[in-house]
Design brief:
There is one protein chain. By secondary structure, the protein is α+β, with helices and mostly antiparallel strands. The protein folds into 5 domains: 3-69, Phenylalanyl-tRNA Synthetase, Chain B, domain 1 (2-Layer Sandwich), CATH 3.30.56.10; 78-281, Phenylalanyl-trna Synthetase, Chain B, domain 3 (Phenylalanyl-tRNA Synthetase, Chain B, domain 3), CATH 3.50.40; 290-358, Phenylalanyl-tRNA Synthetase, Chain B, domain 1 (2-Layer Sandwich), CATH 3.30.56; 374-575, BirA Bifunctional Protein, domain 2 (2-Layer Sandwich); 594-681, Ferrodoxin-fold anticodon-binding domain (Alpha-Beta Plaits), CATH 3.30.70.380. 29% of the residues lie in helices and 26% in strands. The longest helix has 20 residues, at 484-503. The radius of gyration is 37 Å and the shape is elongated.
Length: 683
């Protein structure tokens, strides 16, 4: 097996599979290739890019099996001509390419690679191409370092530039079925003096690929930023074994050994001569970090003691160059171990290879109950309240179409758009939950279903002053047939109930006409078929927390919906501030209630809040509550006016209230309504 080439002594396939699973790399399956070779499928974690190669996995086996890691020879004969005289390399983007190296090999003969190399590559599912390309693939799977061989004669002016792509630049990747692509601009690329010759870390270009006529090579070995490589790969839907490794991190400090090994293999299989040295573009390598492992801390964490000699042996095989002394072991972190930054990481390395099965277990686990978490309880209570009011909770996708998002973007804000092509026709992060709920309503209508009352608690997003903003919101919608008043009344009642559950029964809820409107998707209800309380901002104890109103007909038509839809949306952090509310317990009444219903004729522009405020402001004796009963438009009420029916509940403490005590209060109310509201009592 290929891995045994780097182990002394060799380890059987069965034992390797056991070790991989024990140290955190589950071996999922195995296949016999022939009598002497066995293929293992090993799962690695995303932070262990150093184990995406045979040497990396062999190092893990050696540490766990008390073996020794045997690295291949990398020394190769070099000529007297310096590589720097054959080509120039300019790194224009050090942030995304920390280190770029180029080696020159001249006089190679391109042909089939040796049988032993072809056998190794076929065993892992690779297709042999030629001796040069096969060597780059061999080193990729041996060291985990992606490399690339350019035909030096095809590089214009023998110049290499690592830079960002220009918008519209063409690029044809290597591959029999590859098609030319147009770069969008900003992708990290490798270019010569005139054109792009490689999509950095992803794919080389066809124009400079190695052919049977190639004699001189420029060998690239570099480190590219994982985010830049992932972005280019996803944007152009080009994936490769190289991009897979760069996305998981390739350390600048590991480049040289792999490049030296590649040059040695090329000279061995294709002949030629290597120029002296290499061309390096990038800052000097940073010193390797040093971390101290305390043996006492190790024992405290894992629950038993591991001898210092065993700790040192494990860390030595893994390449940490341990230096022991007393209670501590001083370790120098290998460049390839990007995941090791703290003492606890070293503890993990030791226990993985010492044996996780040695960690003692106990029959009981000590737990401490967590006290009430108000933020979590508030969400649960809010959901329960709306569900009890007949609303169905929805869970919708965060992305919406531009058409759905546009009406809900407030002035001075803009939407956030994703670049992911998988979003298809819905690339915008929703600025409001309402368009998502309207989409559910549309889906139900298209399938012949009913129009349920819906709500959702989720995140909304927008861009303001070049800063990405995000907030939690809760929204609800209702569509009750063709009557906008009924829809609006249901939503507003649910909103007020939600406010009082979260903020307390004494919370004052007002809907104030908002100017300018924070979003263009809601109508003033007065513009609907019937006049309602105007669209506006929901205020709780004088502070705005959300909006409520009817969705504009133009917006409904845009989304393919008919009929009126009422909507309300709250900023969750503002709405649930101070939850839980202070308790407000009151003794049950012991005396009967005396109720009176009044029908007050007022102008269409008079809001319910004004009527309620005028009545409460009259300070009527024994008045306990003011209730909205209904509204009437039509004969005999004049056009432009409405008849609002108000319920007044009176109660006296400890005794029965008489009609003779209430009638004077009603009589006192009549002139106040006329003076303040221009209203009159309807007979």
């Amino acid at each position: 097996m290929w891995i045994n080439q780097y182990l002394n002594p060799a380890v059987s396939a069965t034992e390797q599979a056991r070790i991989f699973t024990a140290v955190g790399f589950p071996c999922e399956s195995g296949t016999d290739i022939d009598a002497d070779d066995h293929q293992l499928e090993v799962e690695t974690t995303s932070n262990r890019g150093d184990c995406l190669c045979h040497i990396g996995l062999a190092r893990e086996v050696a540490a766990a099996s008390h073996g020794r890691l045997v690295l291949p020879a990398t020394a190769s004969p070099t000529g007297t001509t310096p590589a720097s005289g054959e080509a120039t390399v300019v790194n224009h983007d050090i942030a995304r390419c920390p280190r770029y190296t180029a080696r020159i090999v001249k006089g190679v003969t391109v042909g089939p690679s040796p049988e032993w190399m072809q056998t190794r590559l076929r065993a892992i599912g690779q297709i042999p191409r030629n001796n040069v390309v096969d060597c780059t693939n061999f080193v990729l799977f041996e060291y985990g370092q992606p490399t690339h061989a350019f035909d030096l004669a095809t590089i214009h002016r023998r110049q290499i530039h690592i830079r960002g792509a220009n918008a519209g630049e063409p690029f044809l990747p290597i591959g029999d079925t590859a098609k030319e692509i147009a770069l969008v601009g900003g992708e990290l690329v490798v270019a010569d003096a005139d054109r792009v010759i490689a999509l950095a870390g992803v794919k080389g270009g066809a124009a400079t690929s190695v052919t049977d006529a190639t004699t001189d090579l420029l060998i690239e070995a570099a480190s590219f930023d994982p985010v830049a490589v992932r972005s280019s790969s996803r944007r152009h839907q080009i994936a490769s074994d190289s991009s897979y490794r760069f996305e998981r991190g390739v350390a600048p400090g590991d480049i040289d050994d792999a490049a030296d090994r590649l040059v040695a293999l090329i000279l061995e299989t294709a002949g030629g001569r290597a120029c002296a040295g290499s061309i390096v573009a990038g800052p000097a390598l940073a010193p390797r970090p040093v971390i101290t492992l305390r043996l006492s801390r190790l024992s405290a964490v894992i629950g038993f003691t591991i001898p210092a000699t065993e700790v040192t042996r494990i860390l030595e095989v893994l390449g940490f160059d341990p230096l022991g002394g007393g209670d501590s072991v001083r370790c120098t972190v290998p460049a390839r171990r990007l995941d090791v930054t703290r003492e606890i990481d070293l503890i993990e390395e030791v226990i993985r290879h010492a044996g996780l099965d040695r960690v003692p277990t106990v029959e009981t686990v000590a737990i401490r109950p967590v006290g009430p978490q108000c933020a979590i309880d508030a969400v649960r209570v809010g959901r329960d309240t709306l569900a009890a009011a007949g609303f169905v909770e929805s869970v919708t996708h965060t992305l919406v179409s531009e058409r759905a998002a546009a009406p809900f973007v407030a002035p001075a804000r803009s939407w956030l758009r994703t670049d992911d092509e998988r979003s298809l026709g819905e690339p915008v992060l929703r600025p409001s939950l309402v368009p998502s709920l309207l989409g559910v309503l549309k889906l139900n209508a298209d399938r012949g279903g009913s129009a349920p009352r819906l709500f959702e608690h989720a995140a909304t997003f927008w861009l303001e002053e070049s800063i990405h903003r995000e907030r939690r919101s809760i929204a609800m919608i209702a569509s009750e047939g063709s009557d906008p008043e009924a829809s609006y009344r249901i939503v507003r009642a649910a909103a007020e109930r939600l406010v009082r559950v979260l903020r307390g029964g004494n919370a004052r809820v007002d809907v104030a006409a908002s100017s300018p409107r924070p979003a263009s998707a809601t109508d003033p209800c007065a513009n609907a078929r019937h006049a309602l309380d105007p669209w506006g901002t929901v205020e709780v104890d004088g502070s705005p927390v959300g909006t409520v109103g009817l969705v504009r007909r133009t917006v409904l038509s845009l989304l393919g919906l008919d009929g009126p839809v009422a909507a309300c949306e709250f900023d969750w952090e503002l709405l649930a501030a101070g939850y839980p509310p202070p308790p407000d317990s009151q003794p049950l009444p012991t005396s009967p209630l005396l109720g009176r219903d009044l029908s007050i004729v007022v102008d269409e522009t008079v809001a319910w809040a004004a009527i309620e405020g005028a009545i409460l402001g009259a300070s009527l004796s024994h008045l306990e509550r003011v209730r909205f009963v209904g509204v009437w438009r039509g004969k005999p009420v004049p056009s432009g006016r409405k008849s609002v029916t108000v319920g007044l509940d009176f109660r006296a403490k400890g005794r029965t209230l008489r009609r003779e005590e209430v009638d004077p209060e009603i009589a006192r109310l009549t002139p106040l309504l006329s003076t303040q509201l221009g209203g009159e009592l309807r007979a």
